[in-house]
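Dear H.,

Thanks for agreeing to be a second pair of eyes. The structure we're designing against is below in token form, covering all 525 positions.
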């Protein structure tokens, strides 16, 4: 059956893009497979004694400081940190001028044991009632070893508020991870949407698991202490360790330690290690353990999914079955707590107030890499039609350690006569972007499927990060930045029109302008 012709604007964009990036191979009608040759550092974790993991000076000094958005409206922040020597205060002092802290808030403290590893004291403190668009300074820890940081609150909720997100995935703690983090910090993003797989501590055994969560916390602090990172969980948050009998024998979901044995509780694993403050869990369906969380950032509605099924042993499967029947928890896609949560969540979005709708999940739905090929298929079958119905603008995923961007395509139409089903160009579909190229110790997924499928617009196996710069209710600029030997290079970029606002009458007016600005855009970057 003939494929539906690509819309002319995409063709034009493609022509222009291939004109600029001469080194890319253009696969006939399909997208671009970049042939960029990179020199990567070996994919090994940075040694423990490296300065990037340095413990801050002073007795019980706060470390692993990280913040995340604390409410729906962007007027609250959750500040988290770890003290190593003794519990110490869970108090945050804060204010709008440096060194003068008019306010204070009291948090809470938790700790955990994993095998023989005993965690530090993990503090979470919610500070709320903040002013929009304001720089806040904050201080944590005891007087002699206290530390000070700052953050900026988002602008007032307004459909035309502008904001710049960074998108990072599968980060880990290698020299490539460091390069990604450095480049992200140069790109002036205001909040990170993290697509899952944080520390890769699960690649270690016994007490080293906890130690590598701690090094990772100190490693990312350079950014996470100063701006919200909004987390989605990945499969490396599973920590499935059957060789540790004392952990795997008894599966009791109410114990944070043992709940790590089940792939449906990745967000709980993150919570145990201090990366999902529990007040956040009251948002959406996350408290079920099936793990979706959600966040709203001023005029942008971000939906985060925690959907990933890992192959588990028979024994664990049996346990899951028992748990499902006993506690109403399911681990398949449809009718899961996550499915129900997402259905309600999409209904709640008011695009007049929050024009941009972004979905963040771990395993990609459209992926033409050999790695994890078709793994997102069960989710695609269930969620893709919702993405289209609710006019999702972008779907970000990680999991595959490479970069890929799709055209606007959908695969929701089924031909009952021929039994055929395949992706076709669809203006009402989101753009799917895989940015699992943060730089962890597993290395790059260098093998793309050949030929490049029609849905794939651009793909390259390099480390990097993305930014999404929302300008107003109709326009956003998207960039993917390849780390490229230490220089920040915008490799893939395009201008995005809002799916909700562009599909009404305005679209026609914008159209002419769009073609002109694609030209300007490419030239500018
Ligand atoms: C938490 O810390 C306290 C005080 O050091 C300790 O007694 C307790 O065993 C720790 N709890 C866990 C679960 O490690
Ligand atoms: C479905 O497939 C049949 C057999 O290949 C074809 O004749 C028909 O045109 C297709 N229908 C649509 C709506 O594409
Ligand atoms: C939205 O932003 C785009 C890009 O900066 C600009 O061209 C356009 O005029 C803006 N629209 C409105 C209504 O301000």
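And this is the sequence the design step returned. I haven't edited it by hand at all.
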């Amino acid at each position: 059956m003939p494929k539906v012709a690509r819309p002319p604007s995409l063709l034009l964009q493609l022509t222009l893009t291939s004109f600029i990036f001469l080194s890319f191979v253009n696969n006939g009608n399909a997208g671009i497979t970049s042939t960029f040759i990179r020199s990567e550092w070996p994919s090994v974790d940075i040694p423990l004694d490296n300065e990037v993991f340095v413990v801050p000076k002073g007795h019980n000094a706060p470390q692993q400081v990280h913040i995340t958005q604390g409410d729906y409206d962007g007027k609250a922040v959750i500040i988290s940190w770890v003290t190593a020597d003794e519990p110490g205060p869970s108090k945050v002092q804060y204010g709008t001028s440096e060194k003068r802290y008019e306010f204070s808030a009291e948090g809470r403290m938790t700790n955990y044991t994993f095998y023989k590893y005993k965690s530090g004291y993990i503090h979470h403190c919610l500070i709320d009632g903040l002013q929009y668009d304001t720089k806040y300074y904050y201080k944590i820890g005891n007087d002699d070893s206290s530390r000070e940081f700052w953050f900026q609150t988002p602008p007032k909720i307004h459909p035309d508020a502008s904001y710049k997100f960074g998108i990072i995935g599968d980060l880990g703690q290698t020299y490539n991870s460091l390069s990604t983090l450095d480049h992200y910090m140069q790109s002036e993003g205001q909040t990170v949407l993290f697509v899952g797989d944080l520390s890769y501590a699960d690649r270690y055994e016994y007490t080293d698991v906890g130690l590598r969560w701690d090094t990772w916390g100190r490693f990312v602090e350079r950014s996470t202490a100063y701006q919200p990172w909004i987390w989605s969980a990945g499969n490396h948050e599973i920590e499935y360790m059957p060789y540790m009998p004392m952990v795997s024998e008894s599966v009791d979901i109410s114990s944070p330690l043992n709940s790590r044995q089940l792939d449906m509780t990745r967000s709980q694993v993150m919570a145990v290690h201090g990366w999902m403050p529990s007040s956040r869990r009251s948002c959406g369906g996350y408290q079920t353990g099936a793990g979706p969380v959600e966040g709203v950032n001023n005029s942008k509605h971000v939906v985060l999914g925690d959907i990933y099924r890992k192959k588990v042993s028979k024994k664990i499967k049996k346990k899951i079955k028992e748990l499902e029947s006993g506690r109403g928890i399911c681990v398949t896609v449809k009718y899961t707590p996550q499915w129900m949560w997402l259905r309600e969540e999409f209904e709640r979005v008011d695009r007049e107030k929050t024009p941009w709708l972004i979905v963040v999940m771990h395993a990609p739905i459209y992926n033409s890499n050999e790695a994890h090929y078709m793994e997102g298929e069960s989710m695609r079958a269930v969620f893709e039609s919702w993405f289209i119905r609710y006019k999702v603008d972008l779907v970000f995923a990680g999991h595959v350690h490479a970069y890929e961007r799709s055209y606007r395509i959908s695969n929701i139409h089924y031909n009952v006569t021929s039994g055929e089903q395949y992706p076709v160009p669809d203006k009402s579909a989101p753009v799917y972007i895989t940015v699992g190229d943060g730089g962890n110790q597993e290395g790059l997924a260098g093998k793309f499927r050949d030929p490049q499928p029609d849905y794939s617009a651009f793909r390259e196996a390099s480390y990097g990060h993305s930014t999404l710069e929302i300008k107003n209710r109709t326009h956003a600029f998207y960039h993917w930045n390849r780390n490229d030997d230490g220089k920040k290079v915008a490799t893939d970029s395009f201008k995005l029109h809002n799916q909700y606002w562009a599909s009404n009458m305005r679209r026609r007016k914008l159209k002419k302008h769009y073609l002109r600005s694609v030209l300007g855009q490419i030239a500018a970057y």
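Two observations from my side: DSSP finds twelve helices and 27 strands in the chain. The longest strand covers residues 489-497.

Warmly,
E.
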